[in-house]
Amino acid sequence: MAIDDRVAETSCGPVRGTDDGRVKVWKGVRYAAAPVGELRFRAPEPPERWTEVADATAYGPACPQPSIPNVPLDLGAPQGEDCLSLNIWASSDTRPGDRKPVLVWLHGGAYVLGSGSQPLYDGRRLAGGGSSGGVVVVTVNYRIGAFGFLDLSSFNSSGQRFDSNIGLRDVLAALGWVRDNIAAFGGDPERVTLFGESAGAGIVTTLLAVPAAAGLFAGAIAQSSPATSVYDSGRARQLAVIVLEKLGIAASDVQRLREVPSAALVAATSEVFNEVPVRNPGTLAFVPIVDGDVLTDYPVKAAQEGRSHPVPLIIGTNRNEAALFRLMKSPLMPITPSAIKSMFTQIAAEQPDLQLPTEHQIVAAYPRMRRKSRGLNIATDVGFRMPSVWLAEGHSRVAPVYLYRFDYATPLLKMFLVRAAHATELPYVWGNLGGPKDPSLKLGGGKTARAISRRVRTRWITFAAQGKPQGPAGEPDWTAYQQADRACLIIDRHDDVVHDLDARIQTAWGAEVVSFR
Prior knowledge:
This protein has a single domain (7-508), classed as Rossmann fold (3-Layer(aba) Sandwich). Helix content is 31%, strand content 15%. The protein contains 15 helices and 16 strands. It is globular.
């Protein structure tokens, strides 16, 4: 009897995917029970076992989420609360027991948007074999918005229980599933690299400080992590009260939240998500929190004190991160002096161990810049660049760290003045340049862009395989970050390793905020 290579045996039952002769794909594979009813706002539970072969040819539902006009996302699937599933790609010649390195992806979206089924994250280019293959790729759906990052644990009583950091717990459950099952798909459970962008990268850097994540991944890649966007339980309770008020529910009746229609929770998520950064510039509404349970301390602080998990790390940012938020007219990234001052004041109050620049130091760090340009650069650095550098410096004491900056912009992105803005590196990592959802090559630049994509994918894949991000033959050796020389890979038309790239900014970011007028 012929063996059907599309069928994989998991700990909960068999699943059948598809095989086009180049890549095998399993979609919508359940890793946890449906988080509905009593399981809404609770940690994920294991799914019930099944005996019949389950269909794994269609993506599972994306977590319910707002529709934001300036961010038209193709989620690749319908929305629904039964969203705890993942998707797997492996080259067609992959067999159980092959033990290929594994890349597990966490999507971004400010903790309120996105899914693992977005067309941009189709894993066939990464997993397809040849110079860009040799890995098993997994994309994960986790709960977002109020479903995943609304902390109701302060309302717990003897008669009701809510869990904190639900979205983080979902990812931990998914990683546990990968550990227990990925061998059936040809992956090596001992060579799992967790990678993500924006909020997904924020989860990556947070999990470096989560005790329960120990041993679940052997490497990490954080692309544009908002690593300092982690708040305390006091702010989390304030946000929960605001959401309850939006829904007309008294704190004494908090259990009613389990019965609220998902559409109403999405509407409340949207309102709060939009209002919070207007009141508190640079602040996200829904984020991981230091709850004393899943997360016991701020990730950057833990890294600086040598308490992060000692796994190799790639971490970096894009040169013009904040330009995307300016184009979208989003308040998420403050670019005016008053908004920047407000954000710095909040950061200093909540995380006093971080060092922030004075007004004089800011002027010295960003010389000869117009006020608006200076604001964009400050926003990029405070939101993404410096948190990444701070974390790199700390983590480099316990494991190799490879710092990068993505600088390349196609002619179209230059024309729209966004250049290497937030998220523009994503098609390069996935090899999905020029697709229906990526207009960046409309004015040319395709040959250079595809060459950059091949280099990026090669480095990401060799990092997953070996713990060191080697480029193609002839490309410069990406040396690990050390405080002595602060090596950083510049990804542009040509890769280049630069030392002390952030020296001027490093000098400035060495004192508390005094004033920004």
